[in-house]
Amino acid sequence: MSMDQLIGAARDGAANGAGTLIKDSDTKSFVADVIDASQTVPVIVDFWATWCGPCKTLGPALEKAVIEAKGAVRLVKIDVDKNQPLAQQMRIQSIPAVYAFFQGRPVDGFVGAVPESQIKSFVAKLAELGGAELGPSPVEEALEQADAALEAGDHGTASAIYNQVLAHEPANVTALAGLTRALTAAGELKRAREVLARVPAPKLPETSVAPAVAKATAALELAEQSAGAVGQLGELQAKVAADPKDWQSRYDLALALYASGEQEKALDELLEIVQRNRPWNEEAARKQLVKFFEALGPAHPLTLSGRRRLSSLLFR
Q1: Does the reported pTM lie above 0.70?
Q2: Is residue 215, in this structure, part of any structural domain at all?
Q3: pLDDT (tens digit, 9 = 90+) per residue, 270-290?
C-alpha cells in the first residue's frame, strides 16, 4: 500500500475498524460525538475559529497525530464562533484550546499552539490511557516498504515510495537518506548528490549525523570514487598479479571490486594492504575500510566480520 493509500485509509477510519477518526461537531451533537464516544475511546476536542492564526498550525498537526494513532484516539473539531453557548459552557477563554475526554469526563488538555513533538506525546498518552498501543505510523510503514524494496534491489519501487513520503514530509531524514541510496544504487549519482544536499544540517555542531545519513553518504562517496573503475577490473587484477606489492593498484582493485558488487573480495584486498603495509599512503586502506563499513551498515555480516579482522591486524 502506498503512502497516500495508508493515510487515506486512516483518514476514512478504515484502520482497525475505528469509524470516523476526525469530524466536525456542534453544540447539538457534542454529547453524542464526545461524551458518549469517549466511553470506549479517548476523544480530543479542538476548539478553533477561522480567524485564529495558531489554529491553522495546530489543527493539521493534531489531525496528523490522530490519523497516525490509527483509531486509538479520535478528534472532534468545534468552531467557537458557530457554537458560542458550548464555548461558554466549557469556559473557553482563548484559542486554540484542546481538551481530551475519556469515559465521559475531561482527562487532559492544553491551550495555545504547541510543538509537534508535544502533540505526539499528548496523543500517545491518551492512547495508552485508552488501553491501546500505537503501532507504526503510515509514514513508518511506507519507509519499511521502501527499505525492503531497496534491500531486494528494486531501486525504482524504493525511490517511488521515498518520494511519496517526502511529498508529505519534505525534511524526513530517513526518506532523504533512503532515496539517496536508491539513486546511488541505480547509478544516478548526480541526482543522489542533489537529494543528499537536502538533508537538514544538525541543529547543534556537536550533534552526530544520523546513521542512515552516514550510510547514504558513504555509499554515494564510494560510488563517485569508483566511477569507471569497473571497466578497469581486469587490468587491475593483472597488475596486482604481476606485482603483489603494487599497493595503489591493489587499492584501486578494491574500489573496482566493490563497485562491481564483489564486496567481500574488496574487503580482502584492503585488509591485505593493512596487513602487509599499513602505513602506505597515510593508512589509506584502513580509512577506506571504515568507509566500506559505513556504506554497508553496522549490522551487515561483512561489516561485523571485517571489523573483527581489522581489529586483529591493528592490535595483534
Answers
A1: no
A2: no
A3: 999 999 999 999 999 999 999
